């Protein structure tokens, strides 16, 4: 926890935290065929197994409350038609189904907003502060004086979740046809986020080490919304959220946005959102080193290691780890894969990446050894003799 705080405030630190964004579910299933132990392939967290630093989320429900009931309506073999928990009718693949195809949307206009969504976006709903594991138990963990890992409070999504609810076409039309509705939903999201922050931090005394937003509002050519509309409508509400966070000493505020963020990045910084994540390198060449040169230490960075390199040579992995090292040493930068690790990455390549990250960024940290007794540094994996995978052959049994 202290290490995260120091590196994000450009203070002296013993080493960089070693983390990752996560893995496609199919990635762990593929790796199971090449030597990953079964319990890890089925686990929700791989931090302990791979010997990575832990970080967790905290807070209440900043979203629909309650969610809609999820229901599978039709089984089509390799895909299924379902009503998702945000009310969207989708067709999703049973394998490699990270991005479902939208078929229809319950939210279409002001009437459907008032009827179906606005009642579930009331800031004061008591269900926002409950959990199956027990709200009091979570509060006790988040406020534990000797907690040694950082926690981040979720601060909402002013555009990204709207885009999910409406669909990309319809939200683009709404911004033009009914801008007051768009702004009302943005304001409602901010109200919910602020209410949750005040309750968790103000009433219960939780002191998160950072806050996070989720937007995913860019693609490979730039933003899905005009920067002018972003600045006029969204920035004032980001500032409201940021001001609330600052009241409780939370000054590391990161946004999770995929795609080419260049045109929105300075506007986020102006609003007080000071950390970008996961910095997808992509075909457009987003690169942490270039962003640091452009924005200096005003910009904090997480992510930024090109996931495509992981599927190539071990030598290329080492070169990229070493190329990022000078920026890591400056501080304000925690590097890891620029999105979920995909299933075309050989397990032995990923282990090599972790070993190199620990050697270079982690200063050879001895306290980052996997809990497994496996000697990863000298292990041979099946794919070393020729890696190949077929997603249709994955074992998807529970």
Question: Helices and strands in order, then pairings?
Answer:
Blueprint: H1 2-7, H2 25-32, H3 38-41, H4 47-50, E1 56-58, E2 71-75, E3 79-83, E4 88-93, E5 101-105, H5 110-117, H6 135-142, E6 151-154, H7 160-166, H8 168-177, H9 179-203, E7 210-214, E8 218-219, E9 222-223, H10 227-247, E10 253-256, H11 265-271, E11 275-277, H12 288-295, E12 300-302, H13 307-310, H14 314-330, E13 333-334, H15 347-360
Parallel strand pairs: 1-6, 6-7, 7-10, 10-11, 11-12, 12-13
Antiparallel strand pairs: 2-3, 3-4, 4-5, 8-9
How would you describe the overall organization of this protein?
This protein has helices at 2-7, 25-32, 38-41, 47-50, 110-117, 135-142, 160-166, 168-177, 179-203, 227-247, 265-271, 288-295, 307-310, 314-330, 347-360; strands at 56-58, 71-75, 79-83, 88-93, 101-105, 151-154, 210-214, 218-219, 222-223, 253-256, 275-277, 300-302, 333-334. The chain has a seven-stranded parallel sheet. The relative contact order is 0.14. The chain is α/β, with parallel strands linked by helices and 398 residues long.
In a few lines, what is going on in this structure?
The protein is α/β, with parallel strands linked by helices.
The description of the largest β-sheet is: 7 strands, parallel
Indicate the mean pLDDT: 90
Along the chain, the helix and strand elements come as HHHHEEEEEHHEHHHEEEHEHEHEHHEH
SS summary, helix count: 15
Helical content class: 25-40%
Q: What is the subunit organization of this protein?
A: single chain
C-alpha end-to-end distance: 35 Å
Coarse structural class: alpha/beta
């Amino acid at each position: 926890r202290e290490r995260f705080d120091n590196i994000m405030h450009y203070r002296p630190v013993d080493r960089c935290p070693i983390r990752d964004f996560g893995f496609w579910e199919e990635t762990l299933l593929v790796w199971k065929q090449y030597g990953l132990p079964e319990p890890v392939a089925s686990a929700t967290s791989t931090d302990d197994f791979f010997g990575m630093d832990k970080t967790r989320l905290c807070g209440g429900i900043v979203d629909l409350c309650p969610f809609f009931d999820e229901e599978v309506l039709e089984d089509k073999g390799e895909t299924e038609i379902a009503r998702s928990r945000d009310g969207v009718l989708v067709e999703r693949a049973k394998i490699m189904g990270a991005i479902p195809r939208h078929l229809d949307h319950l939210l279409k206009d002001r009437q459907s907003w008032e009827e179906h969504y606005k009642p579930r976006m009331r800031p004061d709903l008591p269900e926002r502060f409950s959990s199956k594991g027990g709200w009091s138990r979570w509060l006790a963990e988040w406020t534990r004086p000797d907690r040694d890992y950082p926690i981040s409070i979720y601060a909402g999504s002013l555009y990204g979740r709207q885009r999910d609810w409406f669909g990309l076409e319809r939200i683009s039309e709404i911004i033009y046809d009914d801008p007051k509705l768009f702004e009302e939903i943005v304001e409602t999201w901010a109200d919910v986020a602020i209410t949750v922050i005040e309750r968790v931090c103000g009433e219960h005394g939780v002191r998160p080490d950072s806050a996070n937003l989720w937007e995913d509002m860019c693609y490979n050519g730039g933003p899905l919304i005009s920067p002018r509309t972003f600045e006029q409508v969204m920035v004032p509400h980001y500032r409201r959220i940021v001001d609330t966070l600052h009241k409780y000493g939370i000054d590391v505020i990161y946004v999770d946005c995929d795609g080419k963020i260049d045109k929105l990045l300075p506007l986020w910084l102006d609003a007080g959102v000071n950390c970008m994540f996961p910095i997808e390198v992509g075909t457009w060449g987003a690169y942490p080193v270039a962003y640091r040169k452009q924005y200096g230490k005003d910009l904090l960075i997480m992510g930024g290691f090109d996931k495509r390199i992981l599927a190539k040579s071990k030598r290329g992995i080492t070169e990229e780890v070493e190329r990022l090292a000078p920026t890591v040493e400056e501080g304000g930068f925690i590097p890891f894969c620029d999105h979920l690790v995909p299933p075309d990455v050989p397990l032995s390549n990923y282990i090599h990446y972790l070993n190199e990250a620990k050697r270079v960024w982690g200063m050879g940290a001895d306290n980052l050894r996997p809990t497994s007794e496996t000697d990863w540094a000298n292990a041979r994996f099946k794919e070393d003799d020729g890696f190949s995978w077929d997603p249709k052959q994955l074992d998807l049994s529970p």
